[in-house]
Each structure stands twice: as structure tokens, then as C-alpha cells.
Amino acid sequence: MSIQSKANILMVIVTMFWGLSYTFMVMGLDALETYNIVALRCIIAFAVAGLIFYQKMLKINKQMIFYASIQGFLLFVVFSLSLFGLQTTSASNAGFILSLTVVLVPIFVSILEKKLPSRAITFAIIMTMIGICVLTLQESMSFQIGDILVAIAAVCYAIYLILNSKFTKNVDSITYGVYQLGFAGIFGAVFCLFFEIPTIPTTTSGWIAILGLGIICSAFCFIGQSVAQKYTSPTHTGLIFSLEPIFAAIFALIFLSEVVTMQLLIGGALILAGNVVAQLEQLYQLRFVRKQAVEENSY
């Protein structure tokens, strides 16, 4: 088996655990309040990842800390909005809605570059929007507040990814990523102190949820993604990440006894199709740029 194949398998495992995180978040909400969960999740993840990369953690500067604090705050917002949203929507819905990020990133990039999205991206946007409406629209022709909060989380995560691509050019990506988790944990702890009562889980399921989120879905997934992305292409990574909502729905069906409805199947399929089209368009653009570069160098 080639190194790239092993890296792709690792990315599938990482994506599977991210899908599992929605189930852990729902379980966690039965034991703790939102900011408690965010604080514990990120502090545990920071401690585990920090121990593994402790030598790299010593190589810091003001620029890295500044970037990590911004991204840590955005992570805190994404995690918090997702948890608030999960109080009134299903884990399956949340998984598909958060995958909007795949389509939102090229939209925001087009806005920043002051140009219209390509036809493929426009088609992907339309498919995704129709999928979101099918998935979330109620009989009363209204949206659940939880779906709206998760959609806002997707917007924040898209902004996070765009900033990440800019910030990581000037800093060590692993050290920078670990410090993000630390700052997200600090923001969670501060908000917990002001708006909640700091506590720890008192039930087995609560501890499983928190440790699962901290160690498996954050520390392991962060490290696994960092390793795998060295040996696989960004497009492979993006296409594999598109599987996250499918894993979220499967785990919600198994562990939370959520019902698979026709709404979920049709809406989810449209969203997934939109994500795949967006990723394939990025692959085409990347190959086109490389081809142009080769042709220019040949003259």
C-alpha cells in the first residue's frame, strides 16, 4: 500500500471521528452546559496535543500567539454555536448543515477577490441551498433556531478556514494549531465563569462524551490530519471531509436512535452532491493553474 493510500485511510478515520463528535456533543449536553463542554474539550485536547508536541510548543513568537488567539476565538464560537444548535436540532441535521463550509469558502474567496463564482461553484451553491431547505424547512414553512445557529457556525468555520490558509504561511502549523485549542479552551473557561457554573461530568456517559471530544475528536483528529495532509492532496482531503455528515448521521442513528427521514435522505444527498461538485471544481482549477505554469516555464 502506498503512503498516499495510508494517508487517505487516516483521513477517513479522522473524518469518521469528526462525524462521531456530534453524538458526543449531544451526550455531553445531557451532563453539562455549553461553555463547560467547550472549555473541557479544548483544554483536554490542548494538554494531550501539547504533551506530544511539547518541543515544538517552546518555539513561539508574538505573531503566532496573535494568530492563534484569533483562530482560537473562532473555534470557540463554532463549537459553542454547534452545541447551542444541537439543543433544538438533530445531530444528523447539524452534520449536513455544518458541511456548508465546503461551499461557503469559495463564495467568500470570490467576494474577497471581487469576481463571480464559476458556473460549477454556482451550481454547487444552488444544490446545497435547495438541500438545506429540504432538510430544515418545517411544515409551518419556518426554520428551527438550532438549524440557524449551526448554519451561523458553518459561516464562522468558513471564515476560520480562509484565515487559516493565510496565517499558516508564516508560522509552524502544528504549534499554531495546538495553541488555537488552548485559546479556545481559555475563551470557553472565561464564558463558563461568567454565564454558567463551572463543573465536571458526574455520569459515565458525560465523561465518555467529554473525553471522546477532547482526546479522540480534537487531539487525535488534529494530529492525524496534520500527518495525513503531508502525504495526500488537498482535493483528496476535501472529498474525504465531505463524508463527515454521512458519518454524523450513521452514528446518530446507532447511538442516539435518530430516525432517518425522507427529508434527511433527499436534503442530505443534495448537500453532499453540492460539496462534491465544489471540491471537483477546485481540483480542476488547481490542475489548470499547474498546466499554465508548466506551459509558461517551457517557453
TrEMBL record:
Identify the GO cellular component terms for this protein.
Answer: plasma membrane
Q: Which InterPro entries match?
A: Diverse_Substrate_Transporter, EamA_dom, EmrE-like
Task: Tell me which residues make up the EamA domain.
Answer: 6-136, 145-276
Per the record, membrane topology reads: Multi-pass membrane protein
Alphabetically sorted, this entry's keywords are: Cell membrane, Membrane, Transmembrane, Transmembrane helix
User: Localized where?
Assistant: Cell membrane
User: Can you tell me where the transmembrane regions are?
Assistant: 7-29, 35-54, 66-86, 92-112, 119-137, 143-163, 175-200, 206-227, 239-256, 262-280
In which family does this protein belong, per the annotation?
A: Belongs to the EamA transporter family.
Q: What is the name listed in the Swiss-Prot or TrEMBL entry for this protein?
A: DMT family transporter
Q: What is the lineage of its organism?
A: Bacteria, Bacillati, Bacillota, Bacilli, Bacillales
